[in-house]
Amino acid sequence: MHQSIINSTIKPFSATAFHNGDFHPVTEQDLLGKWSVVFFYPADFTFVCPTELGDMADHYEKLQSMGVEVYSVSTDTHFTHKAWHASSDTIGKIQYPMIGDPTGTITRNFGVMIEEDGLALRGTFVINPEGEIKVAEVHDLGIGRSAAELVRKIQAAQYVATHDGEVCPAAWQPGEATLAPSIDLVGKI
Fold first, then answer.
1. Within 10 A of 153 (CB to CB), how many other CB atoms are there?
2. Which H helix or E strand runs over 81?
3. How confident is the model at residue 1 (pLDDT cuts 50, 70, 90)?
4. What is the DSSP letter of 71?
5. DSSP string, 123-138
6. Is the confidence at residue 34, as pLDDT, over 50?
7. Which of 27, 31, 40, 166 allows an S-S link to 120, with CB 3.0 to 4.6 Å?
8. Can you tell me the distance from the alpha carbon of 12 to that of 109, in angstroms, rounded to the nearest whole number?
9. Residue ranges of the Thioredoxin domain (predicted)?
10. pTM higher than 0.90 for the full model?
11. In Å, how far are 56, 92, 169 from 95, measured between CA atoms?
12. N-term to C-term CA, the chain
């Protein structure tokens, strides 16, 4: 039986990220105190991956305005991230940290390692400031993700975190009505 990762606390890790033209150490402690997205993808210099990372780059300013930091992670090294950043216009626009996980520690911590290939599944995890995983989405390798939908999910997670007793219905958008679960709503929705 597999235990859900939702509401679990992120596990310790230590890695190196390529960010803002340099290499920086990153640990689980860097994710605390703010909302974070850990965005796993299979490998640099591939096909679907640059479309996803580019889409995330296009939404990065919005995420930053929401108090969210993004960390992309693959089992490539931070050196490979630097080379990809320098050689691709799409990847070159990335402003968020690109973490190298060649040992697979972080990838295994989040349960997205494809052991026989040494690659990560497409996993997206939203982590609250306390280090708890609030959203977990995992895709097979051929299915790309949408950063716009991720923004909506984070908005809902942030709303629920600050509005005790309220929940966000399907396709909820900021400013729309939420629900306050009660016996009176049973069978009425």
1. 17
2. helix 78-87
3. very low
4. E
5. EEEEE-TTSBEEEEEE
6. yes
7. 40
8. 8
9. 4-159
10. yes
11. 10, 8, 32
12. 33
Which amino acid would we find at residue 116?
E
pLDDT for 12: 98
Question: Running DSSP on this structure, what letter comes out for residue 8?
Answer: P
**Whole-angstrom Cα distance, residue 82 to residue 77?**
9
- Judge whether 120 and 145 are in contact, CB under 8 Å: no
Give catalytic status of residue 49 as yes or no. yes
- Given a cut of 90, is residue 188 above it in pLDDT? no
Cα 134 to Cα 167: distance, rounded to the nearest angstrom: 13
- Would you mind telling me the total number of residues written for the chain in this entry? 189
Candidates 122, 118, 162, 164; CA nearest to 139 is 122
List the catalytic residue out of 10, 49, 106, 157.
Answer: 49
Q: Are 80 and 172 in contact (CB under 8 A)?
A: no
Q: Which amino acid is at 13?
A: F
Write out the E strands in 35-108: 35-40, 68-74, 98-100
Query: Left (φ > 0), alpha (ψ -120 to 50) or beta: where does 165 sit?
Result: left
Question: Among all chains, which residue has been given the structure tokens 């729309």?
Answer: 176
